[in-house]
Design goal:
Blueprint: H1 8-26, E1 36-44, E2 60-63, H2 65-79, E3 84-96, E4 98-112, E5 119-133, E6 136-146
Parallel strand pairs: 1-6
Antiparallel strand pairs: 1-2, 3-4, 4-5, 5-6
Amino acid sequence: MTFRRLPTDDELAIRDLFARYGHLADVGNPDFVSLFTEDATWSRANSPPQSMGGSGLPPETIQGHDKLLGMMSETMQKRFRQLMRHQMTDFYVEPGNGPDDAIGHSRALITDWRDGPGKIAMFGTYTTRFARTADGWRIRAVSVEVLPRGD
């Protein structure tokens, strides 16, 4: 079986960008927004209750740097007190619709350390759209689906 691939330099740049996503999100770092295009979207496709492995936050889509910055402040800093960790796994990236577009797929095991010892809080699947910009690759759109789906 063969798979379509990006040029190596593009793939490495995208992998580096995506690795920073988890690191910056977990600590609520405002530099998180610099990973995204100005008009980027971030979507929580579903949200089972905390008792079933969800965040307890409603499904939503936000758009733009101001909203992403608000998400860092309200969700990661205040609600989760910078004590959640994303372990992004099984990441692969493939070409999108042209040389300046790519699609990434990954899984995320999210742990919660707010009550002392860490515990698995959520398991999600990420679909991430990347765009080549004048400043290099950036995230154009993120969609997260958490198990259980509830369908």
